[in-house]
Amino acid sequence: MEWKSLSKEHANQSNHDVKETIVQVGEGNFLRGFVDWMIHQLNVKGLYDGKVVAIQPTPHGKVVPKLNAQDGLYTSVLRGVENGETVNRAELIESISRGIDPYNLWSDVLELARSPHIEFMFSNTTEAGLTYHQETFDENTSPLSFPGKVVAFLYERYKTFDGDSSKGITLIPCELVEGNGDLLKEIVLKLIHDWQLPQAFKEWVETDNLFCNTLVDRIVTGFPRGEEDSFRERLGYEDILLTIGEPYHLFVIDAPEEVAERLPFHKAGLNVKWGDATPYRELKVRLLNGAHTMMFAACYLAGVDTVYQAMTNERLSAFVKDGLFNEILPTVQADDEEKEQFAVSVLERFSNPFLEHQLTDIGMNPLYKFKTRVVPSLLAYVEKNATLPNKLALSLAALLAYTKPVDKEGAFLAGDRNGTRYIIRDNEQTLAFLETVWEEYEAGDATLEQTVHKLLVNTEIWGTDLTQMKGLTEKVTADLEQGIHELV
């Protein structure tokens, strides 16, 4: 059967009266499944009246032609566990008016900058996009970098409105970088200096434009490859931009109340918090990311491949829950009810039957992740209880077992799980250190306890000397001797 392509004839809203009020640098899965989905919720509830224009961030993007072919429309499908119930909701998203390829239609971007209706700029250009790059400025050509595009856009706007203070915009970056708004502003000001743009423009950027720090959280997996036929049957049309995500979402925006009133996500029932992102970042890093890092090596070595498989295994899920609720949660400084609710949501997300989150994906750069996500909980638990946390200590032993190399794999190392090879990825210095330490052990030049001591004493890896934690070296050694698969 030949299916009709998604187009404006499928739309529910009348688009001709809705103004373009939001510029969005980025058109990928995450923004479509997060920000654009939220703007749609505002529009359909009558809390906002604006459309998004999506700007392609790199010269090699492939989404804008697809977006324009579908008149800016796409389908969001949220599936997973929500409040203990399995959900699978499809919704046509109508918040995007069009996409622009700035490398071929830079004049369209400049025209947008001259629009009096533009209020906001969102972005998600990955961590690599939120960096400083030296480049030259040509008013007729799109800068290559994301911050460069921001400067050029704001400069055109500044000139158009003669520095009118009311024509500044609110910039809300969604890159996963701490202090992302502050960093974007810093790079923007540096480029203004590089390009020798007027001092008055610099002052307008600093005083009349708002750069917000944010925290974003939702897993968006994108197009459901292999399920195309079932979705065509379900939806009744062909959607080449079908976007799959989990129901859970959290958006923290550090902005004043007047911004929250103009963009009232919270009034639409969305999980959007206005204010300092720091406490929420702590919850996410310690409870969500920390639990992921705590579980990945132990569960993988115990024989499962995904987070969901671990959560459907009675023994492994008990290990995860015990570590999360009894060892990590009590060490996090936050409101008891809020952190309890967050921990419950973490388990729901881990138990999502629609997500195949590979444990080996979590295991990329595992020592760095353990340092930032788990070591703070380990230290805080010992300080609070004067004893070792059993599950966190076991997760450390599992991490050492997981990162014990059996071979080299290009620039990386290879580990082995009962005949199955996996890649051990970390920075060059850490990999060289692991290779040397374990070679000495295999050669009989060091006992297992001596090897564990060498690994745990390395402050460059852990940020602290873990051997100073009473009994930890002995506990990790004993766990390794017994075998991780026997302990979880």
TrEMBL record:
Q: Can the keyword Nucleotide-binding be found in this entry's annotation?
A: no
Any idea where the Mannitol dehydrogenase C-terminal domain is? Answer: 278-482
The catalytic activity, as recorded, is: D-mannitol 1-phosphate + NAD(+) = beta-D-fructose 6-phosphate + NADH + H(+)
Write down the Gene3D superfamilies for this protein, in alphabetical order: N-(1-d-carboxylethyl)-l-norvaline Dehydrogenase, domain 2 (1.10.1040.10), NAD(P)-binding Rossmann-like Domain (3.40.50.720)
Q: Which UniProt keywords apply?
A: NAD, Oxidoreductase
Q: Where is the Mannitol dehydrogenase N-terminal domain?
A: 21-264
- The answer to whether the entry has keyword Ligase is no
Q: Name one Pfam family in it.
A: Mannitol_dh
Name-wise, this protein is Tagaturonate reductase
**Organism expressing this protein natively:** Alkalicoccobacillus plakortidis
